[in-house]
Structures are given as structure tokens and as C-alpha cells.
Amino acid sequence: MMEEVQDHEMLDVIGELFSDEISIAVSDRTKYVYFRPSVRVDLKIKTGDLVKDGSLAYKALTTGHKVSEFIDRHVFGVAYHGMAVPFHRDGQVVGSVTAIYPAFTEGKSVVTVKTQDGWKPVPFAEVKYMEVRGRKTHVEANGVSGTHRKSLQEFEFVLPHDLFVRCHRSFIVNVQHISEVYPDSHSTFLLLMDDGVKIPVSQSYASYFRKLLDF
Fold first, then answer.
1. Is 176 helix (H, G, I), strand (E, B) or coil?
2. Among 1, 27, 132, 212, which residue's beta carbon has the most beta carbons within 10 A?
3. What is the pTM assigned to this prediction?
4. How far apart are CA 149 and CA 133, in angstroms?
5. Residue 1 burial (CB < 10 Å; 0-12/13-18/19+)?
6. DSSP label at residue 58
7. What are the φ/ψ torsions at residue 47 (nearest 5 degrees)?
8. What is residue 37's predicted lDDT score, i.e. its pLDDT?
């Protein structure tokens, strides 16, 4: 159990920093011990509620690793993006902290790219990949190349997860534009995109990438 997680005043102060956009949930191994909803998203979690199978907290607790995913509405009745981080004691997982974001993709279907001539809305399906170069996020799409002010981390919570996968600290790719996947070492891969560009899958993302593409 997490006897030390009792200072709700401290957690409330931390939650206040993110109260407009991010809900915060803290669990022990089996149940939630704290929840603070945000203005934008409320999963209606109550202290003492069991951690639900399929939730981010459940995935962090069972895998022992940080999890960042989109969760559809079948778990809590509300779709959300989030990140859950487990914490350990004596080598054992004893709890988790989850940051819960609203599902920003609802109602959106384009990325508006800044080009030399102005701004061009590009449908999600036409975006091939995004790359960080020179501290800017570059967007490559069908017939369009430009930049966007959002970071890749921000895009992870905006782009539909059935199309886009983070494969490297510098790349997010649209899986529908991958022509082939090649092994690049014992634990990494190289992606050949349909425009001939080769994109690496780094070791830190390789297992996540394989899981999402089911190979």
C-alpha cells in the first residue's frame, strides 16, 4: 500500500498548476488513492475506486513502464489521452501517477502547415511524417512541406493513434505511408516511406512500435 501518499494538500497544489487541461490520478497497486479532475476532462474517479483493466494506470502497473496512449471511451465513458508512470519500492511496482488530457482530436481532421506562401490545412491521411530539425517540427505531406509550432510530444496527443506512431525522438510517422520495414540491428528498424525517405525506429521505441504494428 502507499501509506506515504496521504498529503492531499500537496497533490492539490500540484493539480492546481494544471487544473485547466490535465486531470491527475494516483493509485496504489489496486485502487485510486487520489484524483483531481481538470476543467476539460473528468473521468469521475473516486478515492477507493479499483484501477480498471485497460486504463493507463492498469497498463503502467502491469508492465512496470511509462505508458503514453489514447484510451477510447469504453473504459471510463470518456475518450482521453494520457501518460501513466509507475513507481517502485524495493524493485516492486507499488503505484502509479497518471496525467489525463482531453481527446483533442475530436472534431479535428487536419494539420495546418506553415509554408513559404502562408498556411495550408493538410488532412491527417495525407501527412507522411513529422520530423524535428533545427528546433522546429517539419511536416511532410503529399505535395506539401512546411513547419508547425507544436512539438512532437504535443502532436502525440493531437494526431489519431490509428494512423500515427512515434518511432524516434525526432520522428512521428503515418503508418499508411510506410512501404516496408527493415531490421537495422538486433533491436531497431528502418522504415522505407512511400516517397523513398528512410526513417529510423530507435531502440527505445522499437518494442512499442512492434506492438502497435503487430509484428
1. helix
2. 27
3. 0.56
4. 12
5. exposed
6. H
7. -55, 130
8. 86
